[in-house]
Amino acid sequence: MTSPLEQKKIRITGPSVVTANRTWDGAVIYRTAQQGWSAELSNAAIVRTSDDARALLAESVADDVGAVGAYIAPVEVKDGKIEPGNLANKSGRKASPSAFRFRRKVFHHVRL
Terminal CA-to-CA distance of the chain, rounded, Å? Predict the structure, then answer.
């Protein structure tokens, strides 16, 4: 499996965030502008360029204690509110085994 940092080209076509799964319970979390994590999408740092997305992703991947499986996800900003921009995030499911499979995450090394 290719690491997100090994991807040579990161293309984003609109507002995006970095999302991952929290290591201790698998909950979906989002990278914040304060270099932390939040379970609330409204607290996520929004990037709009490939360079900004690459920098936020690199910072997120380096924080492998708090989160695993970081990746860039599209969002939509409507009336000042951030909404998921893809089907996986619109499902609203958090920390369920089927959500893990759907997102193709592998948590065999995380002990709950």
Answer: 24
Which helix (H) or strand (E) segment holds residue 90: the answer is helix 87-90
Question: pLDDT digit of tens for each residue in the chain (112 aa)?
Answer: 445 555 556 777 889 999 999 988 999 999 999 999 999 999 999 999 999 999 999 999 988 788 999 999 999 998 889 888 875 545 554 544 444 444 444 444 444 4
Burial class (CB in 10 A: 0-12, 13-18, 19+), 108: exposed
- Give the containing element (helix H, strand E) for 99: helix 97-102
As a whole number of angstroms, the distance between CA 79 and CA 95 comes to 28
- DSSP letter for 5, please: G
**CA–CA separation, 49 and 96 (whole Å):** 31
Q: With CA atoms as reference, report the closest residue to 47 among 38, 55, 36, 58.
A: 55
CB 73 within 8 A of CB 86: yes
E-assigned strands of the chain? 16-22, 28-31, 37-38, 67-78, 81-84
